[in-house]
Design brief:
CATH class: Alpha Beta
Strand content: 5-15%
Bound molecules: 4-hydroxy-3-methoxybenzoate, manganese (II) ion
Largest sheet: 5 strands, parallel
CATH architecture: Alpha-Beta Barrel
Order of helices and strands: EHHHHHEHEHEHEHHEHHHEHEHH
CATH topology: TIM Barrel
Number of domains: 1
């Protein structure tokens, strides 16, 4: 079975160097716990540096490719790792996104059956971002887009980001909303016990973004836009019944804008999600039965998650051949414009 892993983190030295500057800046962002840990290891107190994610992020050929071969992983869909360029000023972010996209396109051209990639852009400069999206999906021939949660506290339901959503829809680019730590106004009680990141904060951050977009009517304005999220849907599949019920009540009393379709319809029609970092067969079975097999895609979350157990998880998952085909590569090929074998 062709295994295409669809949320695989990667970086370039120039972005890593700029993140080291962020680590030493006075920013109060909750992302600094991870940024300090990975990019300024001498200053690390949280232990990220000890896990040495940086060498895994910066590497393609030395360790990643041999490990893919060993585990039987055909392809990684690469993404510039969170927080991407979103903590930089708009000019630096715009330039570094373009540089990362160029490098990613080189890797994909060198290994067309082993690597595909999602392009980055600077959301804080929406018009230039829209131009970069056209370049990513045109000239560079990449497979879609990635954004990491909020940008300086703003979420994608804000009309200022419409040029970005418009360009994504027009170019047929699926937009992967990857997590970063919750914004300054959301972070309060999430600062302790390692709740800032993958354990809990990331899901709160992306789930909040998803609900703002659905309830805010983004998909009435951009009905063909496809959003991908990771981590088994960032808790939304399990809660969609209640989200749907309560949004409908809120619309009736004027606490939420009237939308053309229901929250459940937006989630089914405008979203897909990956299994990244949730290797739980009960959660996967529920997600497939609840949202439909066409909406679920396998991913590892390398190097934050090791490859081998993620492969064992999907290969041992009890499902039909048609379901395995969809999970392991069919849906990825459709959603991310990857040529079938
Ligand atoms: C972690 C996990 C970080 C998955 C990630 O991106 C991620 C983590 C920065 O465990 O800190 O995609
Ligand atoms: Mn990830």
């Amino acid at each position: 079975m062709r295994l295409i892993a669809c949320e695989e983190a990667w970086s370039i030295p120039e972005v890593a160097a700029e993140l080291k500057n962020v680590a030493r800046s006075p920013s109060q962002s909750l992302d600094k716990l991870l940024v300090k840990g990975i990019y300024d290891a001498e200053a690390d107190t949280a232990g990220y540096g000890k896990m040495d994610f940086l060498s895994g992020l910066l590497d393609v050929e030395e360790r990643r490719l041999p490990e893919m071969d060993r585990c039987g992983v055909a392809m990684h869909l690469l993404t510039l790792t969170a927080p991407g360029v979103q903590m930089f000023d708009a000019d630096t972010a715009t330039d570094l996104a373009a540089l990362a996209n160029d490098r990613m396109a080189e890797i994909c051209a060198k290994y067309p059956t082993r690597f595909a990639g999602l392009g980055s852009f600077a959301p804080h400069s929406p018009k230039r971002a829209a131009k970069e999206i056209e370049r990513v999906m045109g000239e560079l021939g990449l497979n879609g887009l990635v954004v990491n949660g909020h940008t300086h506290g703003d979420y994608l339901d804000d009309y200022r980001f419409w040029p970005i959503l418009e360009a994504a829809e027009a170019t047929g680019a699926t937009l992967y909303i990857h997590p970063r730590a919750p914004s300054d106004t959301l972070k309060g009680p999430l600062q302790d016990y390692a709740m800032d990141s993958a354990m809990w904060g990331y899901g709160v951050e992306v789930g909040t973004m998803m609900l703002r977009m659905m309830a805010g009517g983004v998909f009435d304005r951009f009905p063909k836009l496809t959003i991908c999220v990771g981590h088994m849907g960032e808790m939304v599949p399990f809660f969609i019944w209640r989200i749907n019920f309560m949004n409908s009540r809120a619309q009736k009393v004027g606490r939420a804008p009237k939308t053309q379709r229901s929250m459940e319809e937006y989630f089914r029609d405008n979203f897909v999600f990956t299994t990244s970092g949730v290797e739980d067969p009960l959660a996967l079975r529920y997600a497939i039965d609840r949202m439909g097999i066409d909406n679920v895609i396998w991913a590892i979350d390398y190097p934050y998650q090791p490859m081998e157990p993620a492969v064992a998880f999907i290969e041992s998952f009890a499902c039909t051949e048609a379901e395995r085909h969809a999970l392991c590569h069919g849906n990825a090929e459709r959603v991310f414009h990857i040529a079938p074998e």
